[in-house]
Amino acid sequence: MKSNPKLWPNIVVFKENTDWAQRVMEELEVSQTSDWATLYKARSDGSLWRLDARDKQDARFLVKIEEERGWAQLDISNQVKELLLESRGGNTNVSCLQSNCKNFALKGFSFCVEHVYDRGIRV
Ligand SMILES: [Zn+2]
Question: Which domain, by its residues, includes 91?
Answer without folding.
Answer: 77-118
